[in-house]
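Reading a protein record of the kind used here takes only a little practice. The record below shows the convention in full.

——
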Amino acid sequence: MKKTAAFLSTVVLMIVVLLCPALSEEVRFVTVQEWLDAKGECGDCMLLLKIQEVLNPVVAIGADETGTINLYSGGETSIIIEFGNEERMLTGYWIVIANPKYNVFEGTIEMANWSLLRLMPGIE
C-alpha cells in the first residue's frame, strides 16, 4: 500500500511538473516535514499534498510521505477554497499549493494564505 501511494505521488508530481513549464528554477517542491522544520520559511516553494480528511468547509488535513498538516483555506491574501459541502467532498484529491504561511491556531500548526496551483481527483 505504501509503495503504491509513493508511486502514485511520484507520478502525480511528474505530471504536475510537466504541466507547469512556467515554473522558475528558484521555486522548489518541499515536503511537509521540510516546511515544518523551516517553520514555513522555505522561500518560493510548493507542496504536493493529498487531502486526507475534510474537517469543515475551510479546514482539511493534507498529507505527503513525511507527515500531515492542517490546511486553512482563506486568509488575508488568498481566496477561499471550499474543501467540502453537502454535494462534494475533496477527500482523496491531490493539490499543489504555493508559498503557505506558518500559522498557529489554538495550539495547532497550519498552513494558511497559500495559493492553489492545481487540484486533481485522486486515483483509488
In short: The beta strands are 28-29, 45-56, 59-64, 67-72, 94-98, 101-105, 108-112, 115-120. The two ends are 11 Å apart (CA to CA). DSSP finds two helices and eight strands in the chain. The longest strand covers residues 45-56.
